[in-house]
Amino acid sequence: MSTDAARPAEILRVEGLKKSFPVRRGFLQRTTGHVRAVDGASLALGRGKTLGLVGESGCGKSTLARMILKLLPSDGGRILFDGSDISDWPEARMKPLRRRIQIVFQDPYGSLNPRMSVGQILAEGLRTVGVRERRAASRETERLLGLVGLSARAVERYPHEFSGGQRQRIGIARALSVGPALVICDEPVSALDVSIQAQIINLLKDLQDRLGLSYLFITHDLNVVGYLCHRVAVMYRGRIVEEADAEELFANPLHPYTHTLLAAVPDIDTPRAPAPQGAPADLPEERAAPAEGCRFHPRCPQGETRCRSYDEQWVRVGEDHRVRCWKAPVWDGGGGGKKPVET
Ligand SMILES: Nc1ncnc2c1ncn2[C@@H]1O[C@H](COP(=O)(O)OP(=O)(O)OP(=O)(O)O)[C@@H](O)[C@H]1O
Ligand SMILES: [Mg+2]
Questions:
Q1: Centre of ligand 1 from the C-alpha of residue 38, in Å
Q2: Domain boundaries along the sequence of the chain
Q3: Distance (Å, whole) CA 201 – CA 42
C-alpha cells in the first residue's frame, strides 16, 4: 500500500481512449460501417474531486464510462487508476480493483435485482469485501442505510416498495458497500423529479465530504454541473473538446460547442459570458461526422475554411483551461511570452 504522501493527486487519468462499434444494416445484418463512439478521449480527475462529463446524447459518455470500468474493452489509449496503468489488466487482476471503482446508473430500478431485499442487495456487496458474519453485516448495512438517509427498516423491503429517489439512495448504498474511491455517476438524477434531484445531489456532495470520494459525473444538466462539479469536460462526438474548472468554464467558455450547450440552458444562475453572435440555442439535426477537420465545424456558427482541415489540437487558454479550437486565444503563460500550442 502506498502512503498518502506517495499517492498520486489524480485518481483517474484517461489518455486517447478509443472505441468503435460496427454499424449493421439489413436482413443479414451486414457491417456497413463503424461508429466512432469514443475517439481519442482524454481527461483527468483529481482525488476527492468531481469531474462533470457533459455532451449531447450519443456523444460517447456512457461508452467512455464502461471502458473506465473495464466492462467494455477499448480499441486504444490508456486508463490510469490511482497511478497504475490498468489498460491491459486481465479480468483476474481487475476483480479486486472493481471494488474501488463503482457506478451509479440513471435507472436505479433497472439496476437493482427486484427479487432481492435491500438487506440482501447490500449484503452481497459486503461479502465481496469480506464482511460475512451476520451481526457484522447487519451493523454495516445499518451504517450504509444511515449514510444514504434511509431508515434501518429498509433492509426487509424490496426495491419496488420505494420511490425513485429512495431507490437511487439504495443504488448509492450498494455502490458504497464495497468501499470505492471513485464513483462514476451516469445521469444519476435525470430520471427523477426536480425536487428529488436536489436531494440526491446534496447527498452525493455530503458523501464526498464525509468519505473523500471522487466522482466522474455524467450529465446533460449544466445546472447540476455548476453546483456539484469542480471541473468540467465537454464531450463532442467521442472527444473532449474543452476542459476547465467549472467556474472558469461558465464564465469563459471558448469552444463554440460549449457555447451552444450553455445557450440551451435558460435558467442557469452561474455567471457566464454571453454567447458569440450566431450561436444557435438549439442544436440542429445530427449530420455524418466530417471525415476531416474539426468535428463540430459543419454545425459551428463561427466555422471558417481552416476548420475543415484543423486537426483538433489542444490549445491551452489558461493555467487549467484547454480547448480544441484554433480560434481560441493561446495563453501567454501569465508572463507575456507566448506558449506553444499543445500537441
Ligand atoms: N453496443 C453498441 N453497439 C453499437 N453502437 C453502440 C453501442 N453502444 C453505444 N453505441 C453507439 O455509440 C455512440 C455513443 O453512445 P453512448 O451510449 O456512449 O452515448 P451517451 O453520450 O452516453 O448518450 P446518452 O446521453 O443518450 O446516454 C452512439 O452513437 C451509440 O449509438
Ligand atoms: Mg449514456
A1: 9
A2: 112-179
A3: 26
